[in-house]
Amino acid sequence: MPSLSAEGATPDPTTAPTPAAAPAPTRMPLAVYILGLSVFALGTSEFMLSGLLQPIAEDMNVSIPRAGLLISAFAIGMVVGAPLLAAATLRLPRKTTLIALITVFGLGQIAGALAPNYAVLFASRIISALACAGFWAVGAAVAIAMVPVSSRARAMAVMIGGLSIANVLGVPAGAFLGEHLGWRSAFWAVAAASAIALVGVLTRIPRIPLPETKPRLKREVAIYRDRQVLLQVAIVALAAGGVFCAFSYLAPLLTDVAGLDESWVSGVLALFGIGAVIGTAIGGRFADAHLFGVLLTGITASTVFLVALAFLASSPVAAIVLAFLLGVSAFYTAPALNARMFNVAGAAPTLAGATTTAAFNLGNTGGPWLGGTVIDAGLGFASPAWAGAAMTAVALGATALAVKLHKSPSRVVTSGGVRERKAVSSR
Hints:
- It is a single chain.
- By secondary structure, the chain is mainly alpha-helical.
- The chain has 2 domains: 28-214, Up-down Bundle (Growth Hormone, Chain: A), CATH 1.20.1250.20; 216-427, Up-down Bundle (Growth Hormone, Chain: A).
- It contains 15 helices and 2 strands.
- A two-stranded antiparallel ribbon has the order 1-2.
- Strand 1 (410-414) and strand 2 form a beta hairpin.
- It starts with 29 loop residues before the first helix and ends in a 6-residue tail after the last strand.
């Protein structure tokens, strides 16, 4: 799951001036939509393995839990790549960097499609993830640079919309291709989408001037001394990881536990994606005014739905409905999870967005690993729902602690040192 880029971080609300009047909305540049198309390819690759685990496991002669580690491999690459590439590419030409990253990403998909064994496929996922993380950081910065300040959120919504569409169309399409043409065809399809995105970047993305002064990274890393930042990293990782723990093994749950035919898998994954679009729209509408309210209700809902899925996994109707509801609840909290990180780490515009991306993918790494562990322990394909519910329950407790800290005076780290944050009531 992505966040705003480092260069598009929301300013510290305690120091940013309030504009006198909001300018009229401007037309979104075509280049921003090209970036959204690119994110569609990135998002499809990131999540499509949830519908391809069984054929990959059979072809590579590995267990389904081991095949599930391919999802974790991508997430690990995102965890490592987001902060490192956000910092390493600051002084490189934006357009050139985007071209290089989308090219490497596409080559990673080709390598995966041609992989002769599990080890090569695993390596291709890590390489693709590193390129994906870098493209997110740089692409968001480019999108923001092409629009006025008053249109930044709209520009980011276009990019994040590419991810939502990937869940609705890309992931189920990957499962459909895997079922009818083999799992490798899904990798070829993403490689083709990456090639189209590359052409768009080459022809439609303008050259963005580099910043005159390089950000002072030594000062920005000081945000990691703030307990609110570290707590938010834990909340994001646990909330995302809990849902992804169950989602990663949704296909075998639907077929082996609920008794559905494999042809149902792509449709149910599409239903999860539709829920994600709905959840993002609702959460984005209310997160600014009721940030903690969205977090508490959304994470609670995810916990309830995961427990219900564990109990009712043998019911096809219940499994389908709960897959949709999990999509709603998981993405309902996503805007608030992003916004909260920028609130507590807004003094570090280079690292705030990258930290959120890394935290999401830390959860996307731990969730599938935990799900595979409980399956390997002989607890069945419904057990990842129990494990995911445990993760989201801990996230809920951590959120309650964050509310308590938010109400109390605390010390926060800024680019110039440490200052006092006044106590304010939670929203």
